């Protein structure tokens, strides 16, 4: 029997892909190894969004091959189809596996394995869920948008969506097994379609399944968030009061150069509508808005950056993932001059981080003295329980409850707020 180990970089979609790889390998008699150095097969699910994640892959592959040259190294994810990456580490990688070819992995590794699993589409392969109470459910893969800085359309190919019946079946199974949180995931969930079912209808169908569970979804593209979807966010009681969608820049010219296909005003209008639908249907919790933003895109002047600052101040995000632009090989912006210095990118990142801290803290003050439901995830290094609210706020639970809380809902009274987290004590626990 062969052993395997998977290391995952990057987004939740990669995490969901790794879960499917695990199941596929175990179905084919592979056993999980203790760590990357003890595995016969090491699979690296890679991310090409940031240079730092890419560098970590080079160093990992180097270390593993140095320690154990017989390890079969498999590279999947964003970097698997990049010519420059292939040539840089070709001597250390045994198999390059675009993720849509997942089901060809076993024959590629070892043709003597009996009973290989055959499936047409890799998303039809069941995953081995990492968590026992929260699961990513991919509803599709790939992207048609070609934002000028992004490798995803090249790495994952064009959009392809799973049949709604298959998604519903997977979610039904999760609920039956006691899962409390289902996260529908695709590069662009709003573009989902399967026959006559669009994302709004899919969301409503999942919401109608019986059981006490929460629904989240990532990622949403601002150009595709329809009024119908916003209304559904309010009406579907199980859908959490949290929307994550990427602003990327608050300047219209930069947005055009990024090929994002919306304006800053459109983005802000969506935020307004989402918050207002939240107030109408779910007055218990304010709708949380989180985002991604890139600073130092080619040609971004100080004045253009100040437009992002303006949107940041006006929107009052609950969380933002701020990244410094780095050119990704093969993308349209790779041809543009990366002309904002490293120091200036860092300065811009710091400016936005500071605004985020302020707005998030002000938003968090709403929770003070309130009792809110929390899905408890586990213990931190200090041994304290922690979890998330429906609005995706991290909550530290102080005091030492004796029960095992992981995977259950708790009602937590919030008695302290920080910039990016809350703190409170548990009043009640329920399944
Ligand atoms: S929408 Fe843009 S940023 Fe998102 S995956 Fe597609 S190309 Fe990349």
Automatic annotation (TrEMBL):
SUPFAM superfamilies: Radical SAM enzymes. SMART domains: Elp3 (SM00729). Its cofactor is [4Fe-4S] cluster. GO terms for cellular component: cytosol. Residues 365-428 form the TRAM domain. Catalyzes the methylthiolation of N6-(dimethylallyl)adenosine (i(6)A), leading to the formation of 2-methylthio-N6-(dimethylallyl)adenosine (ms(2)i(6)A) at position 37 in tRNAs that read codons beginning with uridine. This is tRNA-2-methylthio-N(6)-dimethylallyladenosine synthase. The lineage of its organism: Bacteria, Candidatus Falkowiibacteriota.
């Amino acid at each position: 029997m062969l052993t395997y180990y998977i290391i995952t970089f990057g987004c939740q979609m990669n995490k969901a892909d790794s879960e499917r790889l695990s199941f596929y390998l175990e179905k084919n008699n592979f056993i999980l190894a203790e760590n990357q150095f003890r595995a016969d097969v090491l699979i690296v699910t890679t991310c090409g969004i940031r240079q730092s994640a890419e560098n970590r892959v080079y160093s990992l592959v180097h270390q593993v091959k140095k320690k154990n040259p017989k390890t079969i190294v498999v590279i999947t994810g964003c970097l698997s189809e990049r010519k420059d990456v292939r040539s840089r580490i070709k001597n250390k990688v045994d198999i390059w596996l675009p993720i849509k070819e997942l089901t060809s992995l076993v024959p590629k590794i070892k043709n003597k394995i009996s009973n290989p699993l055959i499936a047409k589409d890799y998303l039809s392969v069941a995953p081995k869920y990492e968590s026992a109470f929260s699961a990513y459910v991919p509803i599709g893969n790939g992207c048609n948008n070609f934002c000028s800085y992004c490798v995803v359309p090249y790495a994952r190919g064009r959009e392809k969506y799973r049949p709604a019946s298959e998604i519903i079946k997977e979610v039904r199974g999760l609920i039956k097994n006691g899962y409390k949180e289902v996260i529908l995931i695709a590069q662009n969930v709003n573009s989902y379609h399967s026959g006559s079912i669009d994302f709004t209808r899919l969301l409503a169908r999942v919401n109608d399944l019986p059981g006490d569970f929460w629904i989240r979804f990532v990622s949403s593209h601002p150009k595709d968030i329809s009024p119908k979807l916003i209304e559904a966010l309010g009406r579907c009681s199980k859908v959490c009061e949290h929307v994550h969608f990427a602003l990327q820049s608050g300047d219209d010219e930069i947005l055009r150069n990024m090929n994002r296909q919306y304006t800053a005003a459109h983005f802000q209008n969506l935020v307004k509508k989402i918050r207002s639908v939240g107030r109408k249907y779910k007055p218990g919790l304010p709708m949380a808005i989180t985002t991604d933003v890139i600073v130092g895109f080619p040609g971004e002047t100080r004045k253009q950056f100040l437009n992002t600052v303006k949107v940041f101040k006006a929107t009052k995000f609950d969380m933002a993932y701020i990244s410094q632009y780095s050119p990704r090989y093969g993308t349209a912006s790779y041809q543009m001059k990366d002309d904002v210095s490293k120091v200036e990118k860092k300065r811009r990142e710091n400016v936005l981080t500071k605004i985020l801290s302020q707005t998030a803290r002000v938003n968090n003050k709403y929770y003070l003295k309130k009792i809110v439901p929390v899905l408890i995830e586990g213990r931190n290094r200090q041994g304290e329980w922690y979890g998330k609210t429906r609005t995706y706020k991290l909550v530290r639970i102080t005091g030492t409850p004796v029960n095992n809380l992981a995977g259950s809902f708790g009602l937590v009274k919030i008695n302290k707020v920080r910039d990016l987290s809350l703190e409170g004590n548990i009043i009640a626990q329920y399944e």
